[in-house]
Design a protein that fits this description.
seven-stranded mixed sheet, about 120 residues, four-stranded antiparallel sheet, 11 strands, mainly beta, single chain
């Protein structure tokens, strides 16, 4: 099992920055990829950014150039640096990890979610 705990959400003015953290514990060596989703009220969940074990990253078009996903060297913590925030970035942000369980099947773990609110 992999457990994830997020932190770093809050209220920020448009144009400001926030950094979200996602601390992982458990079967860290089994993690294949990690990423961030967000969901705003009344909207579909959106995949914001992903990072693989080879450090390959992807971003949604809505955040490309403004957000940066990264992991620390020990790969115990994943970050989402969010710059030039816009009111439309307001959402609950959740981290996830895809990992291989004891049967080598891919399984996902989720963080509890953290609220990001951007005021205009």
């Amino acid at each position: 099992q992999v457990q994830l705990v997020e932190s770093g959400g809050g209220l920020v003015q448009a144009g400001g920055s926030l950094r979200l953290s996602c601390a992982a514990s458990g079967r860290l060596a089994s993690i294949v990829s990690m990423g961030w989703y967000r969901q705003a009220p009344g909207k579909q969940r959106e995949l914001v950014a992903t990072i693989t074990n080879s450090e390959r990253t992807t971003y949604s078009d809505s955040v490309k150039g403004r957000f940066t996903i990264s992991r620390d060297n020990a790969k115990t913590t994943m970050y989402l640096q969010m710059n030039s925030l816009k009111p439309e970035d307001t959402a609950v942000y959740s981290c996830y990890a895809n990992y291989r369980n004891e049967y080598l099947r891919l399984q996902a773990s989720w963080g509890q979610g953290t609220q990001v609110t951007v005021s205009s």
